[in-house]
Amino acid sequence: MKTIKRYPLSTVCIALIWVLSLMPFFPETPLDGVEFIDKWTHLVMYGGTCAVIWWEHGHRCRKEGRAFSRRPLLLWAMPAMVMLGGLMELLQAYCTTTRSGEWLDFWADSVGVVLGTVVGILSMSLQ
User: Is-above-0.85 flag for pTM?
Assistant: First the structure.
């Protein structure tokens, strides 16, 4: 519960990943014709969430007057987001009838996590 209060935007992003990943259907969009649009979507969802986690962590450290540390995010947040991507793919594959788990989706999730981490590190070093 303490984490939810400390990281409200990150919590919302993670909740959205759960909802969007487990929806029984996904509405048609004008972007459906874009090649690999689902992979780009995974990359943006996980990369954006990681960047938000980094931003909130930095904001929290400044607010509390603590020195910013990358270590907890690299040791906990980054692996947790990669595991979330894997969990979502397994849930889609084995617990839904209209969604499928794909290795390429997991790869896109993981690349998004790495890119979000890079963005987070760069944004913290610029402040």
Answer: yes
